[in-house]
Amino acid sequence: MARGFRASLPDKSLEPTPRLVETHDQPRPWTATWFDPPFLPELDHVDQAYGICFTNEGKILLICSHDLDGVTPYWNLPGGGLMPGETLEQCLTREVAEEACARVIGSRYLGCQRVDDLEHPDGPQSFYQARLWARVQLDRWDPRHEAFERRLVTPAEFLSVLAWGPSLTAAVILEDGLRLDAEAKLSERVTDT
Predict the structure, then answer these.
(1) β-strand partners of 137
(2) Pick from 77, 84, 70: which is nearest to 113 by CA?
(3) Main-chain dihedrals φ then ψ at residue 175, nearest 5 degrees
(4) Among the four residues 75, 131, 134, 167, which has the most C-beta atoms within 10 Å?
(5) What pLDDT, on the 0 to 100 scale, is given for residue 27?
(6) Cα-Cα-Cα-Cα dihedral of 15, 16, 21, 27, to 10°?
(7) d(CA 11, CA 140)
(8) Mind listing the pLDDT tens digit for each residue in 125-181?
(9) pLDDT, tens digit, for every residue of 65-107?
(10) In this structure, which topology does domain 21-192 adopt according to CATH?
(11) Rounded Cα distance, 185 and 182, in Å
């Protein structure tokens, strides 16, 4: 079971200036506010860790589960809810293994978005969703959780396959993920010489 992250609302006065604010209207009005590192919220207010996961060949790993209707395929980043005591990296590693049948070889914090869902049926909610870059190695496909398919896409295909629709946040995750992936490859080449 994921941690009880909504016991109290986050203290927004501790936040830096956001990189972007994106408004949505489905299924009800909500906003996603993106924060770059070094800002990292307290883990008690983080409800999930998802990763833009690259293979050594530069492809991006996506997983497919069903959308809320239980029928429509939903292509997404691997990831999920934090368990009590988990770090963001531990959560991502566990979720990538469970959902995508892959191993995280390395990861770095990419940033986070604060979700403000002020018209939630259970009352106003505000929480963070962490995003990480990861290098992964695929294992044999043996799905045992909600994902029923995995797919490798090129960076050029990423935004059109990801089920988030026209999302500025997805574009930021792609841009920063590509930068971190290039830095990791450069670091690997320097280490190999």
Answers:
(1) 103
(2) 77
(3) -60, -50
(4) 134
(5) 85
(6) -10
(7) 43
(8) 899 999 999 999 999 999 888 889 999 999 999 999 999 988 999 999 999 999 999
(9) 987 777 889 999 999 999 999 999 999 999 999 999 999 999 9
(10) Nucleoside Triphosphate Pyrophosphohydrolase (3.90.79)
(11) 5
Q: What is the pTM of this model?
A: 0.91
User: Per DSSP, what are the bridge partners of residue 34?
Assistant: 20, 113
Map out the domains of the chain as residue ranges.
21-192
What dihedral angle (degrees, nearest 10) is formed by the CA atoms of 81, 84, 90, 95? -30
- Burial of residue 49, with CB atoms counted within 10 A of its CB: 0-12 exposed, 13-18 middle, 19 or more buried: buried
Q: What is the pLDDT of residue 192?
A: 63
Amino acid occupying residue 72: T
CA–CA dist 96, 139 (Å, integer): 11
